[in-house]
Amino acid sequence: MKQWKTYHFIVNGFEMEAVYHVKTIQEIFLPMLRKLTKMQKEKQKRLVIFVAAPPAVGKTTLCQFLEYLSKEQKDITEIQAIGLDGFHYPSDYINSHNAIVCGKTVPMKEVKGCPETYDTEKLEQKLQKIGQEDILWPIYDRNIHDVVEDVVKVDQDIILLEGNWLLLEEEPWTSIRKWADGTILIRAEEEMLKERLIGRKQKGGLSRKAAEEWYENSDRVNVRRVLNDSVKGDLVLWVEEDQDYSMK
Predict the structure, then answer these.
(1) What would be an example GO MF term here (predicted)?
(2) Is the pTM here over 0.85, yes or no?
(3) Phi/psi zone of residue 38: left (φ > 0), alpha (ψ -120 to 50 degrees), beta?
(4) Is residue 93's pLDDT more than 80?
């Protein structure tokens, strides 16, 4: 029988809850952090690790948990988890521009969250600096549904940058990966992600039918795009049906 443990920790003033299998922490997460610690000490430089995954996998919670876990272990270099979402174009821009997605011109506001709605030039400018100096990082504030610039100070020696599109096998994302010292891809079965995303919309007040329609018209495209068009990471993790992680 699996032994699960629930963790509560504070991130940016908000309490987060994470539930992970004890064996997974001991056999996957801690060895991974020790490997990154060894790499950082050998290279004697700041490491930037890209963590990519489709929507609803739980990558943000995982990365924040790994940050928390690194602070609890004396033999592991403290890591810092940051996100890609602060590089969405501002809402005013999205609401007034179109994007070409899969060969079709569509209003950006209808596909917000797809790779074409990210300011990749701004992202690359930040990544050019992050390896050499402490910088300020933008966030996406879900209370105002917009980007807020220069909120997080990036100052640790190991950085986990998480986002859907970081391992996408197309430009400009392919070129952006030159700034990564390592890559992690998190995968899951599409049907499981579908149910998670539909469940999120239902919690937000939509009916099951409306949530399914939203998934088919929006989320499904992004899920499949990440699963089908991402390159394999240096490490590949799988999220199982019971929410546990495995390596394949």
Answers:
(1) kinase activity
(2) yes
(3) alpha
(4) yes
